[in-house]
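quick one, 122 residues, struct below
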Amino acid sequence: MNGDCIFNDDFNYVRENLVDSDMVVFATPMYYFGISAQIKTVIDRFYAINGKIHIPKKTALIMTYADTEEKEAQPIKKHFETLINYLGWTNVGEIVASGVWTQGSVKNTKYPKMAYELGKNL
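---
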């Protein structure tokens, strides 16, 4: 914990930028009611830098999922909430894009504008 990671991979780049960042945005599609394996792997590796990131930061969640029932998004939203509460980060926004299944299906929806507004207001 709080030392060098035994893996020599791209997390070293993420680590440097994560520690120094003022804000972290989690962007993921929902796969079988969970976040992507890539984001989960990064979160799991937070352990190595816990003391350095367990400080006030802003954060946001941007996720897509094919279903249109809001309850289907709850597992990811709860995971995000629990994580940021533990880290002491402030949630500045969530964009949960339902009904987004195939590549390009987000076009002509309200979600790109929502993402733009979230970014503009930071």
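The chain has a mean pLDDT of 90.
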